[in-house]
Amino acid sequence: MAIDRKVGFAGATFVVAAAAGFVMQNGGALAERFGGSPAPQPVAVAVKATAEVPRGPALIAPDVEQTNVILSQAKDAAILARNAVPLVVSEAAQGLPEQPAAPGSYRVAALGDGPVMSNPEVLGDRAVPKAQNSEDCSVALSALPENGAMVHLYLDAPCNRDDRVTIQQGALIFTALTDDDGLYDVSVPALTTAPSFFALFADESGAKAVAEVSDAKNYERVALSWQGDAGLQVHAREFGADYGQSGHVWAQAPRTAAMAIRAQGGYLISLGDSRALNPQMAEVYTFPSASVQKSGAVRLSVEAEITAANCGREVQGLSLQTGSGDRLSMTELTLSIPECDAVGDFLVLNSLLRDLKVARN
Which of 52, 197, 280, 353 has its CA 20 to 30 A from that of 172? Predict the structure, then answer.
């Protein structure tokens, strides 16, 4: 069944950063806290654009005209500083061992000068690190690889019960809530083959974990994050699918990771807890590009549903898209949402993400 969609007036600004290296962190703050020298800034290209689409029956907004391309590194640095675009932080700069962990293993380190987490506790058939001494409020985080290039995070924070925690994988950030024992766990798509994860609390306690996910290169992923009720969404239309058809993957038709593991198609996972204060939310779309037995294209778009919560406001988001090797492309997005008489319409941005071209394997 097709979905009736309208497009309203929209003003959009994009800041695009092509990030070299496998992990990106916010500013130099995390690098400073974990040790190591300040990391170099990624080479960035800033693109400012405005899309204005007459309201009516049009289904898709036209490609946004890209203008004002700024190439000098001096201006890049200013753009990155002004927009808080994360910096590249190498694993060596974080003071981690040079040799990667063996497949299926994990490494865990504490924030600041705290101890490295140890004394694993068995959870099912998994060894999950626990804080060495729960009475001193140590925080433990583990990152355990799973099928489909997923990583299961286990967080133990005995002194942060029912507390807001920020989970970060590079520039992908979302917020969650621990339970009444200070525990939290979640499965997160790996954006690189050696992702670093951080769990941070408002009291500046937290922990870091690094996983080895060799099969991440077999999947293409798109991540989108935003704060609060921005109404932003990732939409993927696989192999010619229209809106509402079985190949249309989005938050209301997300599928499961089993689709990608079986090379049958992509799926979408939502991250973040809307009950948290000023929640940071995220969506990640995954497609098994190395194993799917079809040829064609996957059309990708970022869309914003105009709701009573976001109408008449300016909303911001950040998209990440995997590329060759462990490269990630990053785009910061600012959207001016139409007034509230347009509630129910959608803003559709086609040029923000790169469509996937799939060849049968």
Answer: 52
